[in-house]
Amino acid sequence: MTALVLQARLDSSRLSEKALLPLGGRPMIFRVMEALAGFSWEAKILACPEDSRASFAPLAEEAGFTLIPGSKEDVLARYCLAIRRSGAERVVRATGDNPFVFVDAAAALEKEAHALGADYAGYSGLPYGAGVESIASEALLRAEREAKDTPEREHVCPYLYRHPELFLLHRPLAPPEWQGPELKVTVDTREDYDRALILYESLLSLPPEERRLGKNIIASLQRSSTCRF
After folding, report:
1. What pLDDT score was predicted for residue 115?
2. Domain with 100 in it
3. In this predicted model, what pLDDT tens digit does every residue of 47-76 receive, in sequence order?
4. Number of structural domains, the chain?
5. Residue 94 to residues 35, 131, 155: CA-CA distances in angstroms?
6. Which member of 71, 110, 153, 208 has the lowest number of beta carbons within 10 Å of its beta carbon?
């Protein structure tokens, strides 16, 4: 079984409570869940710190996600808690500040990871904030046991790609239609958020099933110089 595990929090030093800022009339975290739910995951989990539980619980329920609160600083442990609770054999890692994740690229990456039996898979060359990571649960559980450095705990996957002798890594360049490393679609700052509002409105001109396709998001970015980073 593969579980989509979306990590999110409320506090941010650069843009406080950004997960709850409105995007198209709903909180941004809801739009992220809405986008990711477009693929048929066997389980959908919102993994948040305990102090975000009350704010996220109704939104997770509405979006069809199971809420699993865990450690605030040790995000790796939070993922492993989600693995144990769900029984997932693989997880697809996504983050709550990426409302324009390429759902078609996520599906393709997960298919490749399964075919290869990869412990870790992630595309390079995507716009910043457009991708996900696919990880074998056993690899993350091993990382939880062995990782000591704070960045390895906070950012979940560094222990895996710092130890290629231990894990089967699949890190290919993304197909040309999804490439755009000079672009950024994550929301870290107020400026990012203002541009996300413009991009979201631009994508509304497309049919719903086409708004989450990577090539259409890139095209919308490139049509407007105000969306360029």
Report:
1. 96
2. 2-227
3. 999 999 999 999 999 999 999 999 999 999
4. 1
5. 11, 8, 12
6. 208
